[in-house]
Amino acid sequence: MSFKIGNWIKVTDTKDVRWSLWSDDHTAVCGRIGQITSTYDAPDGTRYYDVDFYLRYRVEQLAHGTHNLEFLASHMSLSTKYDGEIFAHREKSQRELQKWEALSRKKSDEALSSVFRKKPKVKKVEVPVEPEIPQPVDFEGFGMHDELYNTDYLFDDDD
User: Fold this and answer.
1) Is-contact 57 91, C-beta < 8 A?
2) Hey, is 157 helix, strand or coil?
3) Alpha helices in the chain (DSSP H)
4) Among positive and negative, which fits the CA dihedral 101, 106, 112, 115?
5) 33, 88, 95, 157: which has the highest count of C-beta atoms within 10 A?
6) Domain residue ranges of the chain, discontinuous segments joined by +
7) What is the CATH number of domain 8-109?
8) What 3-state class would DSSP assign to 127?
9) Which sign does the torsion angle of CA 49, 52, 53, 59 carry?
10) pTM of whole model > 0.85?
11) Degrees (nearest 5) of the Cα angle 107, 111, 115?
């Protein structure tokens, strides 16, 4: 199959262990959609294709952004840009779903733990109460008012 500059391709799903130039970066983009940006022929007659990949999220050791890798024709199959957009949308949806599932698990764990968690036993410690010592009362200047007869009584200890 002949590939041209500008074609959208899909990289094979498995790595090529027989190709000496295959790296971990190539493995990271297995199964992804990219676009051919240039081609060149090696002196031994092998045609190499430079392929650009746009990664929306970090994939293994590759950060998000555009990455350029070279492949052989045997590593690629013809695809469309639409397939790449569908793949990116599905990847985004999966990440959002994972976030919601993690939140759901956390909330259900909290609810279940509040019901089934063993409550710690609280020991009641009795603090010894000291008896109150009565203080002597000084009635000097102490008065009383009788509401019924509207009179005031003063008490003196001196009498």
Assistant:
1) yes
2) coil
3) 24-28, 81-116
4) negative
5) 33
6) 8-109
7) 2.30.30
8) coil
9) positive
10) no
11) 165
